[in-house]
Amino acid sequence: MEGIRISTRSRTWLDMARRLSLSELVCMGDELIRIPRLQFEDRTEPFTTLAGLRSLVDRHPNLQGVVRARQALDMMRVGADSAPETLLRLAMADAGLPEPELQVALRIHDAMSPTADLGYRQRRLAIQYDGGHHLLDAQTFSDRRRDKAFESSGWTVLTFGKNDLADGFQLATGKIKRALRAARLDHPQAAGFADAI
Predict the structure, then answer these.
(1) Which helix (DSSP H) or strand (DSSP E) does residue 173 occupy?
(2) Could you give the angle at the alpha carbon of 61 between the alpha carbons of 59 and 65, nearest 5°?
(3) What gap in Å lies between CA 87 and CA 108, rounded to an integer?
(4) With contact defined as beta carbons under 8 Å apart, do 78 and 34 qualify?
(5) Which of 56, 74, 136, 181 is 20 to 30 A distant from 194 in Cα terms?
(6) Phi, psi at residue 121, to the nearest 5°?
(7) How confident is the model at residue 190, as a pLDDT?
(8) Domains and CATH numbers, the chain
(9) Mean pLDDT by 10-residue block, N- to C-terminus, for the chain (197 residues)?
(10) Going by C-beta distance under 8 Å and a sequence separation of 6 or more, which residues neighbour residue 19?
């Protein structure tokens, strides 16, 4: 008996390109390339890299779904810790917002610094997506402390959740636009940033 043949995560991602929507494929890809957090996972390296996935796609130019896979590669980013974070970023792009930084540390070069899921350092805007586990008491306390640290340093913190996910982040992107406009007035030194907002 030869056993059961299985695929790699990367090849499964490519094979799913013919079945998944573009946003679903980007979510799956972001999960493959994200850098794991040592305190939560038993690994230190991502499952693959953007370069690795691009090489895989290039080796299969006639595979069904390869066009969508190429589109997804251009939209994938290292730094999303969950599918809703990726979907929020994609909704922000669809709304014409500038691309945010991911995993924004309040204090650069400080491994213990609180971080925001997404944000704009020049505008001191921190954006969080808090999923279901954030409702647990210990996590809620940690989240409050995280947000207070940003606010004490002069940042605006916007937090979104499952209701925002359910409406495709339509209200969320409007809030982010308004916050960026307000930050532009508060921080004129960043006036060259996102003038179109």
Answers:
(1) helix 170-186
(2) 115
(3) 26
(4) yes
(5) 74
(6) -60, -40
(7) 52
(8) 1-77 (no CATH), 79-197 (3.40.960.10)
(9) 82 97 98 88 92 97 96 97 97 97 94 93 95 61 90 96 96 97 68 52
(10) 65
